[in-house]
Amino acid sequence: MSQDFKFTLHATDGAARTGEISMPRGTIRTPAFMPVGTAATVKAMYPDQVRQLGADIVLGNTYHLMLRPGAERIAQLGGLHKFMNWSHPILTDSGGFQVMSLAKLRKLDENGVTFQSHIDGSRHVLTPERSMQIQGLLGSDIQMQFDECVKLPCTDEEAERAMRLSLRWAERSRKAFGGEPGRAIFGIVQGGAVPALRQESAKALADMDFHGLAIGGLAVGEPQDVMLAMIEEVMPHLPAHKPHYLMGVGTPDDLLQSIARGVDMFDCVMPTRAGRHGQAYTKFGRMNMRNAKYADDPRPLDASSSCPAARDYSRAYLHHLVKSEEILAMMLLTWVNLAYYQDLMAGARSAIAKGRYGAYIEAVKAEWNSAE
């Protein structure tokens, strides 16, 4: 295990935890929300804005970056951090989810996945070894094992097949990762919505020498109660001294409920995607700025917000920008949404440290239900 990666728990409140991950490029305060920078950019945001909002780490995507501009090219240009002007930690996912959801004419076998690019139809092969090689070329700080993610609902047989293949790929990914100084690798729990499979996957991965463990294959179409039930099945089998990462999740309520069950890290495109489609996340809940009721509303989204985009622009102006399809609408609302997500995490960390996490959830939900 690399001595350059350290996870320290500072406080717990029930199953909720707050702590920090220490790495050479910086400290990640947990619970942490990682803005998604799929193609080496958090869409509609400057890197320094993302940092100022409180993000300690961002996520990059192996599948997209291998296709364009190419991992070898990024390596020649000095690595992903230099390429995107972000000097802090970066986590890269393995590309497995995107291969399953985006690629054309994919063929899966024991070795890996052969697929055609959704961009230009070019042919590629992604294996555990190649995924780790690409992530190494990118130079990311936390790298994810290559896995197969199935959509829910699926049959128990399909969930079991994918889970066992992912375990075999986990071993190959761990071996291919090696012992790179200053970098970490996380395993990914799979198993669909089958408790026994989730437990078996978690136990097997816990026995491997991963720096952290992720829960994958959720938020892919199943109801929230199914997702939370799977988290509860998995958590007792994950090492308490390692970080727990729930991949691709989710709504503010998903985050709050998952933290209560022991999750430390999250990523999701929801706040950035919503911002590009006229949606604002605020302490009053989710607001659709396309609604005509905002056309004559001179109030800001949230007068008490620390985010200038939420505090200094009127709802009427934001409504106008959205209806006019101005680029500034996407920029401002993405800024608002990422600020809200980071504030939510900061509040969770503070509440857990004070032993008041349950009260924090109640207070946040009460604000969502209050008059805007």
Q: Roughly what is the average pLDDT, rounded to an integer? A: 96
CATH class of the largest domain, named Alpha Beta
Number of strands: 16
Taking the alpha carbons of the first and last residues, their distance comes to 49 Å
Would you tell me which CATH topology of the largest domain applies? TIM Barrel
Per the principal axes of the C-alpha atoms, what is the gross shape?
globular
Residues in β-strands, percent: 15-25%
Q: Determine the structural class based on helices, strands and strand pairing.
A: alpha/beta
User: Major sheet: order of its strands?
Assistant: 4-14-13-12-11-10-6-5
Task: Give the name of the CATH superfamily of the largest domain.
Answer: Queuine tRNA-ribosyltransferase-like
Largest sheet: 8 strands, parallel
Radius of gyration: 20 Å
Given as residue ranges, the uncertain stretches (5+ residues, pLDDT < 50) are none
Total domain count: 2
Query: Count of helices?
Result: 15
- Percent of residues in helices comes to 40-55%
Offer a few descriptive terms.
single chain, 372 residues, alpha/beta, TIM Barrel, 2 domains, three-stranded antiparallel beta sheet, 15 helices, globular
Give a brief description.
This protein is an alpha/beta fold and 372 residues long. It contains 15 helices and 16 strands. It has 2 domains: 263 residues, Queuine tRNA-ribosyltransferase-like (TIM Barrel, Alpha-Beta Barrel); 73 residues, no CATH class.
